[in-house]
Design brief:
By secondary structure, the chain is of the alpha/beta class. Helix content is 44%, strand content 17%.
Amino acid sequence: MNIKTVNFVRDRPDYPELKNYLLGLGADHVFTYDELLHSSFKSKFKEILSGNVCRHAFNGIGGDTATAMAALLNKKGHLVSYGGMSKQPLKIPVGLLIFNDLKCHGYWHSNIWESLPKQDKSERIDMLTAWIEGGYFQPPLHEVVTLEGADEEVTNIVKNTLKRIQEGKIGKKILLRWKFPEASLEDVGPN
């Protein structure tokens, strides 16, 4: 497809490792949002483009980062917002709308997914599975946390996991897996 990407992430202690990981996945360039917001970034971005155009930006943060990304787009560019983690509104300068013909779009995945016919969902899942199996697509780094044991044990597992997340010691997706104790039919029969 010959698509080149410029990716932005939050600054964090393990930024160099994250940058290398994303580059290994196929990102062409990785910067922090702080770099994006710096006044010198626009000229650096022009160097990266080397005369090519940038017509699409995808932003899940909102606020100032969305404004900065919109300003990087060429004429007739599209800014797609799929989240608002900063809890700040989009601030799009009217000049970008008038003189650059910028288009802003919202993307709500769960709403789109729910509207798809069952056959389309099945085809998309099959396509993603084929991409993963073919090595063209990699799921994000993740950790499976198994919830098992008595209520108190499960509560402690969840508390410890949340503490690691709050301390910034995770750096990947957390998948919760419930492990239910083996039970006989007599244990779960109607009462």
